[in-house]
């Protein structure tokens, strides 16, 4: 009976992911979701909220839309059958994802959890489904694609948002209201000097 509210809570998270084309439900059951620090091969690190499915990891940016509501903006889709996992056994929180195709995208990615035991739970799920026939079938049927960049405020309109705690106590999720509009630049009026009074009189003479 405990699985029902757990599944309902997972669906609430999934329904607040935006920025994609396709049917997200073809990914199957949501296995885990947590905060991570994701570092690409150029050394650029970003705080991201990751969703783990049998054959996919969805990498999302958390966007706060009100004081207690946030949505997830999909930034990347990691197709697990196309990557290899490298564990950092000397670090309880870090592992890497290497793409099987050399020099693909921003790979390798270094994934750093913010809490102990999160990494072990994720790696256990990934390894369990690595050769799962059903997971491979879901991989083949998946039609999920990143949505081209458009006005994010318009994309957020139908979403209700969900309460989510920051990854760390000192992290602040920026508040970006939906109705925010770019301010138009106000240009200074050009100064037009008055014609010399004497010149006016000369023209009239």
UniProtKB/TrEMBL annotation:
SMART domains, per database record: PH
Annotated spans, Disordered: 157-205
Biased composition (Basic and acidic residues): 191-205
Residue span(s) of domain PH: 23-131
Any Pfam family the entry gives: SOS1_NGEF_PH
UniProt entry keywords in alphabetical sequence: Guanine-nucleotide releasing factor
CDD domains in alphabetical order: PH_unc89
SUPFAM superfamilies, alphabetized: PH domain-like
Cited InterPro entries: PH-like_dom_sf (IPR011993), PH_domain (IPR001849), RhoGEF_Guanine_NuclExch_SF (IPR051336), SOS1_NGEF_PH (IPR055251)
Name by which UniProt lists this protein: PH domain-containing protein
Taxon lineage: Eukaryota, Metazoa, Ecdysozoa, Arthropoda, Hexapoda
């Amino acid at each position: 009976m405990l699985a029902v509210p757990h599944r309902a809570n997972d669906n609430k998270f999934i329904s607040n992911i935006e920025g994609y084309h396709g049917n997200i439900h073809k990914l199957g059951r949501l296995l885990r979701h947590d905060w991570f620090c994701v570092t690409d091969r150029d050394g650029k690190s970003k705080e991201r909220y990751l969703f783990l499915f049998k054959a996919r990891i969805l990498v999302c940016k958390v966007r706060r839309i009100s004081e207690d509501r946030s949505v997830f903006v999909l930034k990347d889709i990691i197709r697990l059958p196309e990557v290899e996992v490298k564990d950092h056994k000397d670090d309880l929180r870090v592992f890497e994802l290497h793409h099987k195709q050399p020099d693909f995208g921003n790979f390798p990615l270094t994934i750093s959890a913010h809490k102990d035991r999160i990494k072990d739970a994720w790696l256990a799920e990934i390894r369990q489904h690595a050769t799962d026939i059903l997971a491979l079938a879901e991989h083949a049927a998946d039609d999920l694609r990143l949505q081209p960049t458009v006005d994010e405020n318009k994309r957020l309109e139908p979403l209700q948002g969900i309460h989510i705690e920051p990854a760390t106590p000192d992290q602040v999720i920026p508040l970006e209201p939906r109705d925010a509009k770019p301010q138009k630049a106000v240009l200074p009026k050009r100064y037009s000097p008055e014609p010399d009074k004497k010149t006016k009189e000369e023209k009239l003479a």
